[in-house]
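anyone seen this seq b4? input:
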Amino acid sequence: MDYDTELNIVNLFNDQGYLKIINCSLSFNLVILQHGSGYILLRSDPLSVILGVCSEETMAHLTWKKDLDTGIEVIDGQHKQIVNYINQLDDARVTKNRVVIAKVIDDTVDYTVSHFGFEETLIEDADYEFTRPHKRVHELFIKRVSEYKQRFDDGEDIADELHGLLSRWLFSHIQNDDAAYVPSVKTSLAKLEKNNKKQGFFSRSLKKFFG
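predicted toks r here
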């Protein structure tokens, strides 16, 4: 489908409103529309064409909210990046392109594992009393996600399942498991800052897990 045809379809939707938006994917410039019993996949450029037909209600993206903030800037930044990866997976699954989906899955898993390692260093250094069970939660989650990845590598279409798991798990984990360690880590970081060691600690830890 060429650009002019796509633009005409979008204009028709705007004028007559009989095409139903199934999904919007701003990262990949995609819109899926339902027309009668069939579907239309638009790959539109410029992005404004899509913005003209996509509303907030049609987007399946996760949205970061203030109640997810831990107050630990580096951790909040990493959590937001994981949200970004989950949203990329939401976009990628629309394409049904296994190469695109594989890349997003790999990036998501790699970054999440690095985040877990960094986070565990923080709570261990803070002598957080529930470090071991927190690490166990991480281990079980990585095991489960790895199983999804193996199923994908074996040819299964697991993008929807994995996206659902990540979407449900992340915010719950932040608001419960992660929130519990915040006081201990903040106290530990305050001591490091007082002794002018905070920046060095962060530099070493970030380099170790993120390269």
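Confidence is low (pLDDT under 50) at residues 1-59. Residues 90 and 182 are 30 Å apart (CA to CA). kinda curious what u guys think
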